[in-house]
Write a sequence for this structure.
């Protein structure tokens, strides 16, 4: 029996098994990373929905405040004009 041939075959068999194992481990690792990235994207998408909803609320509030400012300016403007015209009439 030739032990050198058996040892060489065992070495190549072990090397091949190790190579296949590492390749499978790498493929599993990449698959797991892809799943984690997909979950991050989904979480980000849900986060974007919340941000967009908050932005819509803030936009509505700014529009309402802008309308109030316009209304207040009209009231102040109309209140100042009669006072200015009364001052002009007095002298």
């Amino acid at each position: 029996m030739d032990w050198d041939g058996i040892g060489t075959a065992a070495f190549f068999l072990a090397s091949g098994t190790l190579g296949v194992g590492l390749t499978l481990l790498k493929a599993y690792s990449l698959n797991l990373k892809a799943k984690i990235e997909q979950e991050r994207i989904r979480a980000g998408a849900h986060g974007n929905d919340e941000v967009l909803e908050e932005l819509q609320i803030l936009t509505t509030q700014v529009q309402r405040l802008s309308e109030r400012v316009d209304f207040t300016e009209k009231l102040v403007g109309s209140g100042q004009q009669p006072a200015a015209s009364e001052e002009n009439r007095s002298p």
